[in-house]
Amino acid sequence: MDSTTRHIIALSRRGLLRGAAGLAALAALAPAARPAQAQQAFRSYPFALGVASGDPAPDGFVIWTRLAPEPLTPDGGMVRAPLPVNWEVAEDRTFARVAASGTAIARPELAHAVHVEVGGLAPGRPFFYRFRVGGEVSRVGRARTAPAAGATPARLRFATAGCQHYEHGFFTAWAHIAEEADLDFVFHYGDYIYEYRGRAPGQPGWGSRVRQHIGEETISLADYRLRYAQYRSDLDLQAAHAAHPFLPSYDDHEVENNWAGIHSEKDGRGRYPIAVPPEVFALRKAAAFQAWYEHMPVRRTAIPRGPDITAYRRLDFGTLARVNVLDTRQFRDDQPCGDRNGPPCAEVSRPDAQMLGPTQEAWLLAGVTDSPARWNILAQQVPMMRRLLRGGGIAMDKWDAYPAARQRLLDGMVARRTPNPIVLSGDVHVALASTIRQRPEDADSAPVAVEFTATSATSEGDGAEMTPAGEETLRRNPDMALYHARRGYCVTEATAARMTTDYVALPFVTREGAPRQTVATLAVEAGRAAIQRG
Q1: Distance CA 118, CA 141 (A)
Q2: Using one digit for the tens of pLDDT, what is the confidence trace for 14-51?
Q3: How far is CA 39 from the centre of its chain?
Q4: Coil, helix or strand at residue 238
Q5: Distance between CA atoms of 69 and 66, rounded to whole angstroms?
């Protein structure tokens, strides 16, 4: 039996075993009944990768699916021809009150993915959606429009999650996120897939892995499509996408570990004696960005143009919150000091350091100038806080290694009197919370922002509540209020007066069925850039 067949059988068995626990709260959103006679055009159910919604606006949102009756085979089991797909959006789960409907074209050039930008809907309320092709009907998903411009909602509630290495654990975190009540959105900070080749049990590097990637390291468009299909075949991840709108971003592993701008990690040094030049790396970026777009519920403005993509964007939730989704990968300089964590070298002090790039940086500062929002959220990938590591070193892949870029941003927000800046991040596989001062290295400098860093969903396996590295990190960083190294996610609720973040941890991910545990609740009062215990 080949590995693809084993995966499909394992997926079916897991679905039967955990369907009751992982999807109980979504019974009303269960897949529509399959027709007795399937269309002969499909050898299997074409909506095997589920449905998703994202990027809510006051009048609509994006709804997504991808036709893939055999998702782990070339072209997802589809013929290379365009196919019309009908869609419906309704005010109720039974579709008695249809608010919008239409037909989209699933094109082979985009892996038969469908992105529908629905408009003309009422603001600030839930909707339900589904797709039809031939005699097949997708499961029902739940979406939500943003509040009307100028409206002041009573609260905003969202989750932050990412870093979901398929081999390192089960997606139990996504099962729990699916069951979270009344989320306005889920911010996915990135590392939706990991690019590494699959390792079989007993092979070097298997370690504590619990599942196996299919295929080699992802380089081509076909490689990336297969990897997304494998991840999106997970039923817990499908449940979370069906339950809540997503604001997806990407970090490094959607392309390659620790890539930076035009630069590959394979720089001709250390483990990589043969360098990948920028013009060759651009081909890999183009494939990776296309596959990311094909599998994310994002708007057509994010369609890549070769190795270039515009993924940063701004979403308003009335006057309560403005969310700036940032891209800290595509426009940054190469990591200084050979991208090796440790004491900063002279290169760290370069005055023209770029993390966001001049265009995105100017766009962000323009968006926080006279912002009407009570809370101004910077939803991005890597920690912005000052974070001295063991021995007093810094991480060269994070904002600490780009201090000039960070200082420009903090000074810009202070000069513009940006109300209540909040930074969201991930990437480091631990949960962190910290106050960010205007001069992060100066303990007497005035607080400017608060940062909530979500841990990984699975990456690095079960983890631990505390580690020796964590204890030293807390000692060296007095503005840091939390360090927790289990897997999990964050749930944040904002009102006009206060923003509170629950840090949710799972005691294990290397086996299924982990319970949800809130290990800390941290808060910030409007007008005070300082973390308090909830």
Answers
A1: 14
A2: 433 343 333 344 444 444 434 333 344 688 999 999 99
A3: 34
A4: helix
A5: 9
